[in-house]
């Protein structure tokens, strides 16, 4: 075959979901969601693949700004506001924080705001 996937299918998470895991399950470089529904008999798993219409906020803390921008774009998101702030622990030009939090799943093209280090305050 061509190695492609069929149309995306959305699975609802059961109200009995006990454990969640996020990872790239199908090799598309987008984070997918799995929930373990252990209160059911028999126990089941629910899988939500990060389809084309979604953006999974990547973890970019500590990365240089250009690398963070690239990771955010590859995840299907856009860089929103970029503020600068001083940090005693994060080097100049690297990301101090991002909002929304990493792992958040949003609509494709949603904005991720960054705070980038100015280095130590003198």
Description:
- The protein has 122 residues and is mainly beta.
- It has two domains: 52 residues, no CATH class; 64 residues, Trypsin Inhibitor V, Chain A, CATH 3.30.10.20.
- Helix content is 8%, strand content 36%.
- The protein is built from one helix and eight strands; from the N terminus they run E-E-E-E-H-E-E-E-E.
- Strands 1-2-3 form a three-stranded antiparallel β-sheet, with no helix packed on it. It has a three-stranded mixed β-sheet with strand order 5-8-6, covered by helices on one side. A two-stranded antiparallel ribbon has the order 4-7.
- Strand 1 and strand 2 form a beta hairpin.
- The radius of gyration is 18 Å and the shape is elongated.
- The model has no long low-confidence stretch (mean pLDDT 83).
Defining traits:
mainly beta, 8% helix, 122 residues, Trypsin Inhibitor V, Chain A, three-stranded antiparallel β-sheet, 36% strand
């Amino acid at each position: 075959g061509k190695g492609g996937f069929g149309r995306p299918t959305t699975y609802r998470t059961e109200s009995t979901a006990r454990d969640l895991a996020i990872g790239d399950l199908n090799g598309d470089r987008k984070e997918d969601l799995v929930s373990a529904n252990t209160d059911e008999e028999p126990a089941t798993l629910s899988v939500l693949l990060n389809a084309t219409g979604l953006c999974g906020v990547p973890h970019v803390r500590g990365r240089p700004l250009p690398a963070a921008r690239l990771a955010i774009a590859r995840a299907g998101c856009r860089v929103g506001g970029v503020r600068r702030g001083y940090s005693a622990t994060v080097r100049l030009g690297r990301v101090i924080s991002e909002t929304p939090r990493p792992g958040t799943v949003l609509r494709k093209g949603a904005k991720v705001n960054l705070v980038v280090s100015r280095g130590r305050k003198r």
